[in-house]
Amino acid sequence: MTTTQQNINEKLIPILEQISDPEIPVLSIMDMGVVRSAVIEGDTVKIEITPTYSGCPAMDVIGDDIKSALKKAGYKAEVDLILHPAWTTDWITPKGRQALEDYGIAAPLDAEADKSVLLEGKQLVKCPQCGSKNTTMISQFGSTACKAQFKCNDCQEPFDYFKCLK
Amino acid sequence: MNQNLYNYILGIADNSLILGQRLGELCGHGPSLETDIACTNMSLDLLGQVRSYYQYAAKIAGDGRTEDDIAMLRKEREYVNVLLVEQPNTDFGYTIARQFLFDVYHFLMLTELEKSTDLNLSAIAKKSIKEVSYHKRFSSDWIKRLGDGTKESHDRIQTAINDLWTYTDELFHQTEADKAMVEEGVGVDVTKLKEAYYKEVENVLETATLDIPESKYFQKGGKQGIHTEHMGYLLADLQYMQRAYPNMEW
Ligand SMILES: [Zn+2]
């Protein structure tokens, strides 16, 4: 119960990789690390997902999307929401981090750096548009629960930073 | 059903529900876009946490009531949130002062609840504390900015702190359910959080060049369902949809 290992049947991975986070469509739920287990029992797939943030409205949509994708693949699906172990931004895969950056969202820094960025205004977050670290936080909270708002002082573009959650 | 556990869960969840409702009122009305988004984000976090608590409470009640019934269909006297969280958004100073005075408590409480022998509560606490640490950063930061800002901002945040101070002591009152749950290793002994709470609050107030209120007169009653006059109006707003259109769903 306390393991952070995912237990996912390999046959299901291609199906699950097709399902994206409704708020960040470039990111699959696998890249996001929210699928904690997926096992096949007869004609039923039992899946456990964990929310990024408690109030994340995307979770209900993700649950429905999983059910319909598995139905297409000929499975019945039971989706359970689990809280423990709690999701951390460390579970976003390297591919997912790259997808975030390409999409214009700065990927989360480690916990220490995150703190000095959000609290002390240190310039460590890289602008996803031009790569400059000459950036300023506008607000600790952004367009969704998981993001903060930044602007780049060089190319002048505003952008989202995916906050570290650990 | 385990009545003490049920009541204990409501004691935690109602605080977050009512504060979440207050913050949600600012959606589209915050003083600036950034603070508006911040308040509604915090509201969303709190409501998300509340869903986990009420789902668990509904399971314990086992009488067919759902999380929504528990959240939406109780009478005023059946809500056991502290008086602090129901206080209105008089101005941004009050919103921030209320948030800060609650966040410091909330963070300390969750830190202890993580150790609960009840695995559901411990899991919810572990999840919530990550979010609440962001809330506390936000509100502490604004206390400092307003306190150490202009004369106007200083005076207004000081007024809000002075006014809301009277509701802080109630955070550390134990209910019967609290006592029973502490006994079983499930609940948090809130009386033990008091010292750390005031120490942290006073530190931030000092940094913010604000005075620590001296009044020793404290209000209480929320935990027993006796609320301030603001609560009825808040519930009228919160419950309107379910009362007007019973059983409606998203
Ligand atoms: Zn740039």
TrEMBL record, chain A:
Residues 114-163 form the PaaD zinc beta ribbon domain. InterPro entries: Fe-S_Maturation_MIP18, FSCA_dom_sf, MIP18-like, PaaD-like, Zn_ribbon_PaaD. The gene is paaJ. PANTHER family: 1,2-PHENYLACETYL-COA EPOXIDASE, SUBUNIT D-RELATED, FE-S PROTEIN MATURATION AUXILIARY FACTOR YITW. Pfam families: FeS_assembly_P, Zn_ribbon_PaaD. Gene3D superfamilies: Fe-S cluster assembly (FSCA). This is Phenylacetate-CoA oxygenase subunit PaaJ. Residues 15-79 form the MIP18 family-like domain.
From TrEMBL, chain B:
Pfam families: PaaA_PaaC (PF05138). One of its GO terms (biological process) is phenylacetate catabolic process. It comes from the Bacteria. InterPro entries: Aromatic_CoA_ox/epox, Ferritin-like, Ferritin-like_SF, PaaA_PaaC, PaaC. Signal peptide: none annotated. GO terms for cellular component: cytosol. This is Phenylacetate-CoA oxygenase subunit PaaI. It comes from Mangrovimonas spongiae.
